[in-house]
Design brief:
mainly alpha
Length: 205
């Protein structure tokens, strides 16, 4: 392979194809987890635990998602501050509105998840398809895992700058998008699974 991979921290029994999918996703994300178990938790839905899907974490990603959804706003605010701190023509009130626009746009969070190949890495039960809502929730859980994994918290700013650069550089554009909450139309948002193996009965315990 033509890029660096560290497959050793993964559970010994985990198939190499799953590890490679996760490594590709991390490469596109722009952050490589120091604690792989924390990342696996971020990728694990409650449905995977309920159905005993192999290689999923024993803990679901709900608490990491809670951390991520709160820290997402703080990270956007910090990056906007760093960009415009010396610009006297940009008011704090304006930047606050931009931050709210960006962090309330869950459709774009889901789109970032698609771009990095997150859908093929989510551990879920056979009763769940990959939807925009699940992509957004899982990406927020990954943000939460990065916050815990990187004590300096500099890494999360790098991820934000990498994937939200357009809106950071062009804040007016954040007012032009239709913002979506966590509730997406399930049928229209459903995406084909890239790796049906993650939810297949063949990988249940």
């Amino acid at each position: 392979m033509n890029f660096w991979m560290n497959l050793s921290p993964y559970p010994i029994q985990m198939p190499n194809e799953i590890r490679v999918d996760i490594e590709h996703m991390q490469r596109r994300l722009g952050y490589h987890a120091k604690n792989i178990n924390l990342l696996l938790q971020a990728l694990t839905r409650q449905s995977a635990i309920r159905q005993g899907i192999r290689y999923a974490s024993s803990n679901n990603n709900q608490r990491l998602q809670w951390i991520g959804s709160n820290m997402f706003h703080s990270a956007i605010v910090y990056v906007l501050y760093e960009k415009y701190a010396s610009n006297q023509h940009v008011s704090t009130d304006y930047l606050n509105k931009v931050a709210i626009n960006i962090t309330s746009d869950m459709a774009f969070v889901a789109e970032v998840g698609r771009r990095i190949g997150l859908g093929s890495c989510v551990f879920r039960g056979s009763d769940e398809e990959i939807t925009s809502e699940i992509l957004a929730h899982t990406f927020l859980a990954i943000i939460g895992s990065i916050i815990i994994d990187d004590v300096s918290q500099r890494a999360i700013y790098g991820v934000i700058e990498r994937h939200w650069k357009w809106y950071i550089d062009n804040p007016d554009q954040s007012f032009g998008r239709r913002h979506s909450s966590f509730h997406f139309p399930t049928r229209s948002a459903t995406l084909p699974s890239q790796r049906s193996r993650i939810r297949s009965s063949g990988y249940q315990q």
